[in-house]
């Protein structure tokens, strides 16, 4: 399911606090004043301005406290006659309720082959008008009760989320059901959404950061629709017609391919009755099943150069195919990546940013989906240091693939991941999302309640095995977007055995087999 694509990079001080208290990740705002050194703190305490003789002050991270018990609420379950699976987590501490519907058959991997963006635009248009309500009426109704209603499409599914207070649950669910079951897909609303999309894409396609990412996804996943841009391209957006969204909706929105979760101030009996009332008449549908085309693993180093001569920085993406979300190795891989590049004090950021000063940000991530996944490193640097940064990233991946980690690294990664999980499971919407994630990816029934224990039980041997299996620098895709002429020759000296493809920035076409628009560029 699609949630966020933002990578949080908190400060070192905050991560130290998280590791010691198993607390949550909260980005820390820069302070106007630098923190006092230990010596300054000591002199302030004794009021003399002098550190007492024989006293040596050393800044030190406090030891981790004992893990606190985490109890994830158990969900009541029921399947309606039309196949809709309903989950309920009651929490009466606040008069708030979240309802989240996930349609597993309506992800962007179901987009027509030559028209990516249909699933996402279909989701966007759900709240822009139904057979009995205009877009304005929908917005005014949900605003009047102080709630929220939104829909979005990800790679594997479409998600519709409602948040309301208990007394307005019928108003909210009536709206939610209406937009899911009876969207109108009016031309005037499509035109409004199209103009917003085109405006955004115009800006994004002039941004090397965005283009490096979409090209990387495209080359990594090769012919698989997992590599298509979810929002589409300027060319596909111009071709959108209402009939496309009607067809997509009618073929893929099905209760027997959907999950509905309630979390908050509601009893299971009430929630099941509400589900039946608003979604019970949703007709069952035979949806065309089947996994999307599998991505093709690469052999060797493949380097794609996107040439933008006026660029002063180079966007760098490095990676390979990764892991599915439902894979039993997912949690050990998560711990391994937290050590390598999953946070500010990871090996990757420490080397590339802190020690070498080549960037302000370097991180790695495993991005799992239902049938495939990716491993990606993202960073950027000055044009003059492009080769140094790229070579360092590849070298760090190679070193990490040995799997040798310290006990300190293991403790920090496990404490952080186990400690942040409860804080990210507090709101009704978060709880509903956790329940649906477990159901959508066929995870064990006790997955959420045992997650911290599963993280803490990951061993160094498991991390070593995951690094050996999922990393390695022999077979990688690299995408560099910047002033290629300034570093091309030096890069080829650093990676003499790699295969190279070069495309001018304004001739990139992510839908073309060779990523080039009809105006062919020269491969060097």
Notes on the structure:
With 524 residues, the chain is α+β, with helices and mostly antiparallel strands. It folds into two domains: 76-279, 2-Layer Sandwich (Cytochrome Bc1 Complex, Chain A, domain 1), CATH 3.30.830; 301-507, Cytochrome Bc1 Complex, Chain A, domain 1 (2-Layer Sandwich), CATH 3.30.830. It is built from 18 helices and twelve strands. The chain starts with 11 loop residues before the first helix and ends in a 20-residue tail after the last strand.
Features:
single chain; 524 residues; alpha+beta; Cytochrome Bc1 Complex, Chain A, domain 1; 2 domains; 6-stranded mixed sheet; 18 helices; disordered N terminus; disordered C terminus
Count of distinct structural domains: 2
CATH class call of the largest domain: Alpha Beta
| H/I helix tally | 18
Q: Tell me roughly what share of residues is in helical segments.
A: 25-40%
Which residues sit in consecutive blocks of at least 5 with pLDDT less than 50?
1-35, 520-524
Query: Would you list the SSEs in sequence order as H and E?
Result: HHEEEHHEEHHHHHEHEEHHEEHHHHHEHE
Average pLDDT: 89
End-to-end distance: 40 Å
Q: What is the overall shape?
A: globular
Helix/strand structural class = alpha+beta
CATH topology category name of the largest domain? Cytochrome Bc1 Complex, Chain A, domain 1
Number of strand segments: 12
> How are strands sequenced across the largest beta sheet?
1-2-6-3-5-4
Report the β-strand fraction as a percent range: 15-25%
Q: Tell me about the biggest sheet? A: 6 strands, mixed
Question: In CATH, what is the homologous superfamily of the largest domain?
Answer: Metalloenzyme, LuxS/M16 peptidase-like
CATH architecture of the largest domain: 2-Layer Sandwich
Radius of gyration: 25 Å
């Amino acid at each position: 399911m699609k949630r966020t694509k933002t990578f949080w990079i908190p400060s070192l001080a905050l991560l130290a606090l998280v590791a010691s208290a198993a607390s949550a990740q909260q980005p820390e705002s820069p302070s106007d004043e630098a923190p006092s050194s230990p010596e300054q703190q000591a002199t302030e305490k004794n009021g003399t301005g002098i550190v007492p003789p024989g006293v040596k002050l050393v800044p030190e991270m406090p030891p981790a406290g004992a893990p606190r018990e985490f109890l994830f609420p158990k969900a009541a379950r029921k399947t309606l006659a039309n196949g809709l699976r309903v989950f309920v987590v009651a929490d009466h501490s606040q008069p708030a309720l979240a309802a989240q519907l996930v349609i597993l058959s309506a992800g962007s991997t179901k987009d027509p082959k030559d028209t990516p963006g249909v699933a996402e635009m279909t989701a966007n248009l759900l709240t822009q008008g139904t057979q009995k309500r205009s877009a304005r009426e929908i917005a005014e109704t949900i605003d009047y009760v102080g709630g929220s209603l939104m829909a979005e499409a990800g790679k594997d599914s479409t998600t519709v989320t409602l948040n309301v207070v208990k007394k307005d649950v019928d108003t909210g669910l009536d709206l939610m059901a209406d937009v899911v079951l009876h969207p109108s897909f009016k031309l005037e609303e499509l035109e409004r959404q199209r103009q917003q999309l085109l405006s955004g894409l115009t800006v994004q396609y002039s941004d090397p950061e965005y283009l490096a990412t979409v090209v990387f996804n495209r080359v990594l996943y090769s012919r698989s629709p997992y590599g298509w841009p979810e929002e589409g391209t300027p060319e596909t957006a111009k071709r959108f017609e209402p009939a496309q969204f009607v067809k997509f909706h009618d073929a893929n929105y099905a209760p027997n391919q959907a999950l509905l979760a309630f979390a908050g101030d509601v009893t299971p009996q009430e929630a099941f009755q509400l589900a039946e009332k608003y979604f019970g008449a949703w007709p069952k549908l035979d949806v065309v099943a089947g996994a999307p085309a599998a991505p093709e693993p690469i052999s060797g180093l493949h380097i794609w150069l996107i040439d933008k001569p006026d660029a002063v920085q180079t966007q760098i993406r490095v990676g390979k195919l990764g892991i599915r979300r439902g894979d039993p190795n997912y949690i050990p891989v998560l711990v391994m990546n937290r050590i390598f590049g999953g946070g500010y004090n990871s090996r990757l950021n420490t080397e590339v940013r802190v020690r070498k000063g080549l960037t302000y940000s370097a991180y790695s991530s495993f991005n799992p989906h239902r049938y495939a996944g990716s491993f990606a490193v993202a960073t950027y640097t000055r044009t003059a240091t492009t080769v140094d940064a790229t070579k360092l990233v590849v070298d760090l991946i190679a070193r990490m693939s040995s799997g040798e980690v310290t006990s300190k690294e293991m403790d920090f990664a496990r404490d952080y991941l186990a400690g942040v999980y409860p804080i990210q499971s507090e709101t009704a919407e978060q709880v509903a999302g956790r329940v649906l994630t477990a159901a959508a990816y066929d995870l064990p029934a006790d997955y959420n309640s045992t997650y911290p224990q599963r993280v803490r039980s990951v061993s160094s041997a498991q991390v070593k095995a995951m690094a050996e299996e999922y990393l390695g620098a022999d077979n990688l895709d690299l995408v560099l977007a910047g002033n290629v002429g300034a570093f091309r020759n030096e890069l080829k000296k650093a990676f003499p055995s790699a295969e190279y493809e070069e495309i001018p920035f304004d001739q990139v076409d992510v839908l073309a087999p060779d990523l080039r628009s009809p105006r062919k560029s020269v491969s060097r």
